[in-house]
Design brief:
CATH topology of one domain in chain A: Amidase signature (AS) enzymes
Helix content of chain A: 25-40%
Strand order of the largest sheet of chain B: 1-2
Shape of chain A: globular
Strand content of chain A: 5-15%
Shape of chain B: flat
Helix content of chain B: 25-40%
Number of helices of chain B: 3
Distance between the termini of chain A: 13 Å
Structural class of chain B: mainly alpha
Order of helices and strands of chain A: HHHEHEHEHEHEEHEHEHHHHEHHEEH
Order of helices and strands of chain B: HHHEE
CATH class of one domain in chain A: Alpha Beta
Largest interface: A-B, 69 and 49 residues
Number of strands of chain A: 11
Oligomer: heterodimer
Radius of gyration of chain B: 23 Å
């Protein structure tokens, strides 16, 4: 098989090929290492680990030859640089971590390793996963492999915060990748890059060893090119972990088995509040087409109301910065990472944190500090927590009527690097459809179902009941088949 | 709520982030805009609504109070900017 055939396969096809010995893990990994070099201008990786990947591939071939190995044995994937990886530099795309090399492995990356996956490297992200464009990375912006037809020179964002992972999977540098999602950080970049991304239910994957942003929201999930591949990845990533007290002590179902292709009788919720007047006509059409596809497959669309949705962004931008200001208090230059000397301990802290954190992270820490400070706590933080209850209740009531909810993933296709930079609130509007799901802790999946008039991928989001990723995947599988999205970024076709 | 320079300086000090004097005005505008945006929540009546502190409706798990990890000072100190005799080293705190 040619190198582009090897990188063009789905995770499932690659698994089958390895089992049939059509090619070796070493060949598969080598072709992906080459693809990473070919697309280095996209800046998707912060740290590449080709030697580690080659060594893992050799071992994988040995295990496969003995008919041993895990369900992802020898399959090359990329790891968001927010997962601590033992012996491999982990940066959170921040200067403040310096050359931090974790002496331990995150549970999710350990699970993937245990399943046999080969790590190609650590992908870029918005600094500490705070952003929707991947432009706040201390290691430079990541570039989306997709181009506007009208302006192929324009460099577009891959979305964020898991932008490096999304670009790597879309540009065939990795068969799949890990992401994390706090307010949309898996789903929005998946939509911008034309791939599938799943944020599982809060508690489905362990947060242990993932650098924390907002602990009541953060959740790891898979990014891949098909629904089935996402199911395979989640199978390996998920599971109870005593080291994370919020990890759910429940059994992990067989996610691939959920892809029955049969959604007859299911009720699909269509929230009327997700149709703001400013939504573009092509996004409205994409959504309506999606509803029709599910209807044709035997499901029934039902209009639902999520009346507190319009307050979700404001709620999120109190809760997430508050938690971020607490979580990021640990970066003080004492035990690891960057240190800028000062005359006193406090001066050392302040200088270290000023030099180590970028603009957006500093801004969020300061907002969080303010909303948690004495005298303002009730007006901001306690109020936001009550709104969060109302937003979660909206979903609970909706799920008494429907089995799954269908919405757009993001209001627009990928925008150009530099757009939306002037005003943080405008940038945050990208997450308007993904943030409510996060606040309620529900699973959400984005999959590409069409192209914009300008040739950019557009995604739809499916939202499910807590711990019902199976229904989500089942409906996504049907939508994927009906939409038959086969477009590729320019230069990657055939 | 509109923040002035003094308020921003106080927040920065609470957050232990050094901010240059010339940056205070710009930050005051930025942070005030964000606060104005989130203050739309005030229009919602939340009387009698319990605050949501966690989405995981779980009882916190318990375990027996026994040491089950540790004993590797070198690994703990491996990333320390400065260390001495098995301890992290920082500027003098007490005169």
């Amino acid at each position: 098989m040619s190198p582009t055939q090897l990188t063009g396969m789905t995770l499932r096809q690659a698994r089958d090929g390895l089992l049939k010995k059509s090619f070796s893990a070493v060949e598969l990994v080598e072709s992906h290492i080459d693809a990473i070099a070919t697309h280095s201008q996209l800046n998707a990786f912060i740290t590449e680990t080709p030697d580690l990947a080659r060594a893992q591939a050799v071992k994988a071939d040995e295990r496969l030859a003995r008919q041993e190995g895990g369900p992802l044995e020898g399959l090359p994937i990329a790891m968001k640089d927010l997962f601590c990886t033992e012996g491999v530099r982990t940066t959170a795309a921040s200067r403040i971590l310096g050359n931090f090399v974790p002496p331990y492995e995150s549970t999710v990356s350990a699970n993937l390793k245990q399943a046999g996956a080969v790590m190609l490297g650590k992908t870029s992200l918005d600094e500490f996963a705070m952003g929707s464009s991947n432009t706040t990375s201390a290691f430079g912006a990541v570039i989306n492999p997709w181009k506007r037809r009208s302006d192929p020179e324009a460099r577009l964002v891959p979305g964020g915060s898991s932008g490096g992972s999304a670009a790597a999977v879309a540009a065939r540098m990795a068969l799949a990748a890990t992401g994390t999602d706090t307010g949309g950080s898996i789903r929005q970049p998946a939509a911008f890059c034309g791939i599938v991304g799943l944020k599982p239910t809060y508690g489905r994957c362990s947060r242990w060893g993932i650098i924390a942003f907002a602990s009541s929201l953060d959740q790891a999930g898979p990014m891949a090119r098909t629904v089935e591949d996402v199911a395979m990845m989640l199978q390996a990533m998920a599971g109870h972990d005593p080291k994370d007290s919020t990890s759910a002590p429940i059994a992990v179902p067989d996610f691939s088995a959920a892809l029955t292709g049969d959604i007859r009788g299911l009720k699909i919720g269509v929230p009327k509040e997700y149709r703001p007047s400013g939504l573009s006509s092509e996004m409205v059409k994409l959504w309506d087409d999606g509803i029709d596809m599910l209807k044709d497959a035997g499901a029934t669309p039902v209009e639902i109301s999520l009346p507190h949705s319009k307050y979700a962004l404001a709620t999120y931008y109190i809760v997430a910065p508050a938690e971020c200001s607490s979580n990021l208090a640990r970066y003080d230059g004492v035990r690891y990472g960057l240190r800028v000397e000062g005359k006193t301990l406090d001066e050392m802290y302040a200088k270290t944190r000023a030099a180590g954190f970028g603009t957006e992270v500093r801004r969020r820490i300061m907002i969080g500090t303010y909303v948690l400070s004495a005298g303002y706590y009730d007006a901001y933080y306690a109020k936001a927590q009550k709104l969060r209850s109302l937003i979660a209740r909206d979903f609970q009531q909706a799920f008494e009527l429907v089995d799954v909810i269908l919405t757009p993933t993001a209001p627009t296709p990928a925008f150009a690097i530099g757009d939306n930079d002037e005003d943080p609130v405008t940038m945050w509007l990208n997450d308007i459809f993904t943030v409510p799901t996060s606040l309620a802790g529900l699973p959400g999946l984005s999959l590409p179902t069409g192209l914009s008039a300008d040739g950019l991928p557009l995604g739809l989001q499916l939202i499910g009941r807590p711990f019902d990723e199976e229904t989500l995947l089942r409906v996504a599988g049907v939508l994927e088949k009906a939409a038959a999205f086969t477009a590729l970024p320019p230069g990657l076709g055939g | 709520m509109s923040l002035d320079k003094v308020a921003v300086k106080n927040i920065a000090s609470l957050a232990r982030i050094e901010v240059r004097d010339e940056d205070l005005d710009g930050l005051a505008v930025e942070l005030s805009n964000i606060l104005r945006f989130v203050e739309q929540l005030a229009e919602v009546n939340t009387d009698g609504i319990a605050p949501m502190t966690s989405v995981a409706h779980l009882e916190l798990p318990r375990r027996s109070d026994q040491v089950n990890d540790g004993g590797y000072v070198e690994r703990v100190l491996a990333n320390a900017p400065e260390q001495q005799d098995g301890f992290f080293l920082v500027p003098k705190v007490v005169e």
